[in-house]
Automatic annotation (TrEMBL):
GO terms for cellular component: cytosol. This is Probable chorismate pyruvate-lyase. Its EC number is 4.1.3.40. Gene3D superfamilies: Chorismate lyase-like (3.40.1410.10). It catalyses: chorismate = 4-hydroxybenzoate + pyruvate. It comes from the Bacteria. InterPro entries: Chorismate--pyruvate_lyase, Chorismate_lyase_/UTRA_dom_sf. GO terms for molecular function: chorismate lyase activity. It is an enzyme of class 4 (lyase). It is found in: Cytoplasm.
Length: 187
């Protein structure tokens, strides 16, 4: 009897118990339900610098596409480094479907060097009271996201922890993956 392997994601729901596999120093960052940008800014006492690595349209891999029920193949992908004093603390990889950046969201998502979290956590922007889907993962060189990040940031460690959240902005989905970088441990 032949068994077909299902698409297995490296990402697990935060409440699945996987959080306890993460190093203790990363657990508060991975499990936080608020804006990671705001949490870091509170910890460091200053605004983060945003370095835009890439902001373009590209195809999604099957792991990313599953969050959109495999209906979306090509999206705007924005990759940034969140830094303090030019030291990267987080690398963010955001997937913004065309429908999510049109209409009333169009002006909002002209981000420039503004962090996406500033838009997502603005009380007047969020319309859903439902908790967003949040997952965590330990990523290594076999992960598609790790490989994408490594192309943009060659100092990426061999293994990293990250969180991925499916947000809703005025009823439209956005997928944000945040990779925690070693310098963040100092805060």
């Amino acid at each position: 009897m032949i068994h077909r392997r299902r698409l297995r994601s490296a990402w697990d729901r935060v409440d699945s118990g996987e959080l306890h596999r993460a190093p203790r120093k990363w657990q508060p960052w991975l499990s936080d339900t608020g804006s990671l940008t705001q949490k870091i800014e509170l910890a460091i006492g200053q605004k983060l610098e945003v370095i835009v690595l890439r902001d373009c349209r590209q195809n999604l891999n099957s792991d990313e596409s599953r969050y959109f029920h495999f209906k979306i193949k090509r999206c705007r992908v924005r990759e940034v480094l969140l830094c303090v004093n030019n030291i990267p603390l987080v690398m963010a990889h955001s997937i913004i479907p065309s429908a999510s950046s049109s209409g009333s969201n169009h002006a909002v998502l002209r981000l420039g060097k503004k962090p996406l979290g500033a838009v997502l956590f603005s009380k007047k922007r969020m319309h859903s009271s439902a908790r967003p889907l949040r997952e965590i993962a330990r990523l290594d060189r076999h992960s598609a996201l790790w490989q994408k990040c490594f192309k943009q940031y060659s100092a990426l460690p061999k293994t990293v922890w990250g969180r991925r959240t499916l947000y809703s902005l005025k009823g439209h989905p956005l997928l944000v993956s945040e990779i925690l970088l070693p310098a963040l441990q100092h805060y």
